[in-house]
């Protein structure tokens, strides 16, 4: 396999906060994630061990100062000519990458540019952070080439469809205690209910119960054809409120 390099030069200052926030969010779902470059942009994907929760964050090519995807053979480490020449899908551990973006506020103040590129000859992805005062930090992380990860479902066939702003959902979930493991979402054509779920009947009598009722007009889009109840892992559901518009 020949040399393939991919370099991304994200928008200054915006990148550390948004990209780091995305990593921290999907990192709550699983210990591993996939970087999946496409012609239209970059996908970050993850799935939990039981495959009951799937997360995907997409960064459009316009998010980056320079982004190209194809069979380019030249690259420029200064970010002036950025090409995405590799089409491999890579997987690696969150434990390896999260420390790079642990202090997002510090990165926002100090990091001026970040280049990301891969060299499949040694199976490493390199994050090069260009900081103030000429400081350059280079992190080389090992990765595993793998098959695509994609959730297969037909959204247009769903009987029930609810759309709500992520901030509103986050504000609602904050009323549930952090030790709560699961909550149940119940929907009817007239209302939506989020409530505490406890499987053990003995614990049910002792636990604090929380119920939040919402009317259909509180949603951006509301379509309920069948009365339903679905129980979610609260930790994974909170992820949807961690990536907010900036």
Automatic annotation (TrEMBL):
Reactions accelerated catalytically: Exonucleolytic cleavage in the 3'- to 5'-direction to yield nucleoside 5'-phosphates
Keyword DNA damage: yes
Cross-referenced CDD domains: PCNA
Location within or outside the cell: Nucleus
InterPro entries noted in UniProt: DNA_clamp_sf, Rad9/Ddc1
Function: Component of the 9-1-1 cell-cycle checkpoint response complex that plays a major role in DNA repair. The 9-1-1 complex is recruited to DNA lesion upon damage by the RAD17-replication factor C (RFC) clamp loader complex. Acts then as a sliding clamp platform on DNA for several proteins involved in long-patch base excision repair (LP-BER).
UniProt protein name: Cell cycle checkpoint control protein RAD9A
Annotated organism of origin: Thamnophis sirtalis
Phylogenetic placement of the source organism: Eukaryota, Metazoa, Chordata, Craniata, Vertebrata
Encoding gene (name): RAD9B
